[in-house]
Amino acid sequence: MGQVAGEASPASRRRGPGARESILDAIRAAGRLSRVELAAITGLTEAAVSMTVRRLLEEGLVVETGRTPTGGKPRTLLRLDPAARLAVGVYLDRDTTTYVLTGQTGGVISRLARPAPTGDLLSHLAADIDVLLAGSGVDRARCLGVGLVWPGPRSGVARLDDTPPHLRGWDGEQLGRDLAAAAGWPVLVENNATAAAVGEYWVARVGPERAFAALYMGSGIGAGIIVDGRAMRGGHGGAGEFGHVCVLVDGPECWCGSRGCLEALAGPRAVVAAALADPAAAAEAGLDPGAARRGAATDFAAIARAARAGAPRCLALLEDSARYVAAAAESVVNLLDIDLVVLTGPGFAAASFVYGPAIMRRVGVADARTWRRSVTVTVSLAAATASATGAAALVLQSHLRR
Amino acid sequence: MGQVAGEASPASRRRGPGARESILDAIRAAGRLSRVELAAITGLTEAAVSMTVRRLLEEGLVVETGRTPTGGKPRTLLRLDPAARLAVGVYLDRDTTTYVLTGQTGGVISRLARPAPTGDLLSHLAADIDVLLAGSGVDRARCLGVGLVWPGPRSGVARLDDTPPHLRGWDGEQLGRDLAAAAGWPVLVENNATAAAVGEYWVARVGPERAFAALYMGSGIGAGIIVDGRAMRGGHGGAGEFGHVCVLVDGPECWCGSRGCLEALAGPRAVVAAALADPAAAAEAGLDPGAARRGAATDFAAIARAARAGAPRCLALLEDSARYVAAAAESVVNLLDIDLVVLTGPGFAAASFVYGPAIMRRVGVADARTWRRSVTVTVSLAAATASATGAAALVLQSHLRR
DNA sequence: CCCACATTCTTAAGCTACTGAACGAAGTCC
DNA sequence: GGACTTCGTTCAGTAGCTTAAGAATGTGGG
């Protein structure tokens, strides 16, 4: 009889992601690869690689780029043409809208930042996308579409409390459809945390074998989770509510209606509120409790700057918040057997020097003692643009696999 | 230009699960279906359905079973032959080993329970599997293999603290390989919580559109999570450590090395310990603090029985535990946008009358107020065998799709 | 009874994406 | 210049589907 004890067996020629996608992904991850290497990595036959690569060369997605000597015939190396296909990523933040033009390799070709629009959202976005494309001087025919990142869910309305005024009332799907009509491009909408995770996955060359979570701090806290190379969007596309993981059973009430949510205890708004309530901390951070409040993200960044500069009260506030975040991060890591935690978004970009070590300390103990694994905690290298890049990556991905 | 705003578009003829699997799944879910209906449900062509069904009929997996009149030619209905292919599910519990023989439809054909073996684990298992098959009088050629459920991870060793003595030191993969050799069947190893989730998914006809979590209480607490019809096993197959979700940042130290873990605060062992520390509760449940301890699951069941019979101290203990479990459940639901929570395993089977309502209460508030979703909490109808059935289902699944 | 008509299922030809195996190409080493 | 090595391509299948046409099997009307 058989003696299989694990996964798939001989007939493992199971339906994978398709040759095109596998090959593009492998080259993107490795930078440059020969056809034989591709065959080895993807598990495809050399014949299949050869045929698929020829088509990719014809389409201009891939170019040959030198050769490496071997014992016999040298290998011809292949790389992606970064500008063969492009996509625009738009990141709708509270007070800034960031536009990014990205190519196949994930690099930012061109960037544009504007204050958040006050009037008609759609026409502003459409106009700015045009400006970005015109200013970068690329062939518009190569642009495949627009990825739109916002703090709300992929489809459905953003929660009122946490949403910048100019985005209130919008539904993700609706926004996508309307912008597609207004701008004349295919539009894909994504949540900011998920987009950030996709961006890291795409740009930072995280392999599909690593299960990872991108923790995102903007004016709230979210998590984008990628396992087996697939973004987890949950039942109705509303996954990633990291801010509403409970870290204190009977903690203070959260605006969501529950108790002890991470966001209520340790989110940027909670940190800012604590700083405003503490005159010493407010002074350190240069916050004026009387003044009209800017976004939580802005005030939070001020506190982080002060803490980094050595302000003790601000540092204490962040350390306190980090304790909670670390506990919630540990929950996620344990629940999903996560390998890699990436801190991203403006909040963590400003304060990772506190949150990173806190998470590592918390996860490290049980990690070594019990789970025999080793979780890596890193800080995104492109926290400011990761989301926008991720959204653009989703657009590219969806078109390139075909 | 295009106006795509969501998922895949025209070329949605994307590589799905394969006709065979789709068709079998559709019939299993619906009970009886005609070919046209199958085409509509699976999205395949009628031609493809026809061909695939013919092969399934030849293999005996599917049988025709009557017809329904229409305006024209009546439909021939198809159903699965429950006994066409079989698999054995083995559930290694602390003091009992349960064997289940399951067919294509998930029904239990035959069952066997034995005290946990004390001597050589493998030979006991192999012998009992033989007994089960012999006793049920089925054709051994129809049996595809054995699914083995244990409290440890799919591959890797079970954590010492939580493992019944006869399983200590085993590694999941090793156990599978060795049992395959000893019993002469292909063996697949799975964690009990994940297996329970698969069992629910398979038996209780949960559709792949629902993201669901099976919370499992045995001598510890775990969660099996299924999203998009796929079990989440995480980076190294160690996902589902629901018991080590943190519900109290600075809670008591857990044996895992961290603090405030659900299991340390509210797991069955914690509940039993609390009952032993409280003479009134111990008396209600008939626990003798001086006696040698049986498994936590057994003592916990005694407490649950007492509570159900009206014992106030025991009820209070469970209510207290349920508060924590509910908070952790809410975390999972929020993090992964879970639709459906199923309570299963001996612990929840005994005490669901407390835990079910507690989870519903906790999740319900924010659900209605903020998330505009509606999470269902149910109790498994076959909590005792769900795990074993699930493991058998995995074996069947892996063979049937080919 | 026989003939539209509706509907279900089957058959045949073709397409896509891959595999296997043989072969051509382009180097190195002696 | 020939043997050898390694890389890449070509060609003929094959699996699994699709599209398009047609066969089977019922209904209701004259």
TrEMBL record, chains A, B:
InterPro entries: ArsR-like_HTH (IPR011991), ATPase_NBD (IPR043129), ROK (IPR000600), ROK_cs (IPR049874), WH-like_DNA-bd_sf (IPR036388), WH_DNA-bd_sf (IPR036390). This is ROK family transcriptional regulator. It comes from Actinoplanes sandaracinus. Pfam families: HTH_24 (PF13412), ROK (PF00480). It comes from the Bacteria. Belongs to the ROK (NagC/XylR) family.
